[in-house]
Amino acid sequence: NAGVTQTPKFQVLKTGQSMTLQCAQDMNHNSMYWYRQDPGMGLRLIYYSASEGTTDKGEVPNGYNVSRLNKREFSLRLESAAPSQTSVYFCASTSSGGPDTQYFGPGTRLTVL
Amino acid sequence: DAKTTQPTSMDCAEGRAANLPCNHSTISGNEYVYWYRQIHSQGPQYIIHGLKNNETNEMASLIITEDRKSSTLILPHATLRDTAVYYCIVRAFYGGATNKLIFGTGTLLAVQP
User: Fold this and answer.
1) Fewer Cβ in 10 A, N or C end of chain B?
2) CB A60 within 8 A of CB A37
3) What angle do CA A7, A96, B103 make, to 5 degrees?
4) For B51-88, how does the pLDDT look when each residue is reduced to its tens digit (9 = 90+)?
5) Is residue B10 left, alpha or beta, with left meaning phi > 0 and alpha meaning psi from -120 to 50?
6) Residues of B in Cβ contact (< 8 Å) with A42
7) Integer Cα distance of B89 and A89 in angstroms
8) Mutation target vs A (from B41, B59, B98; most A CBs, 10 A cutoff)
9) Contacts of B76 (CB under 8 A, 6+ apart)
10) pLDDT single digits (tens) A49-72
């Protein structure tokens, strides 16, 4: 039981390049989330997926797209990376029903030059 | 979701109890108090949550005042590995739909040897 896994762990992009951050969970959770964390700040929600087949915007969705590929996987795509998207990206998941808790992945450290 | 206020930082001696306060004076009746922590460079980790009653688990205790306007997270015997940023989050239970967490900047707890 690996929990929430994220790939890659580190990535450096040039401005304008695109990339996809991958996230997978093996806990049979319905809901998945993408957060970003800038230095010295708390986490901010980018997008979330309450269940397979649905996605919704969070606090800071501009510049990102997401895909809930299946129940296990939730990917985050940067179509045209900008330096302002330099951050640490965390994926999380939770089961639905009850005041349950979120489980977080180890994060992806992205630098956009 | 109600807003929370936490001290920016706190120190604690190793082996002593760490008491981390949180104010949530605008909390409403259906909102839970959650605590997460984030050890440097890792994803946040769930600690404990409660609604009205005090709660205890293997990691910590949560004391919620009778009026629910504030709470205290207690780590009974702090170790160096407890050095982390601790987030107090207040969130309503939406019945399994969008379990979003709104992170503030948290309290940096530094456990001193």
Assistant:
1) C
2) no
3) 60
4) 998 999 999 999 999 999 999 999 999 999 999 999 99
5) beta
6) 87, 103-106
7) 20
8) B98
9) B17, B60, B61
10) 988 889 999 889 999 999 998 999
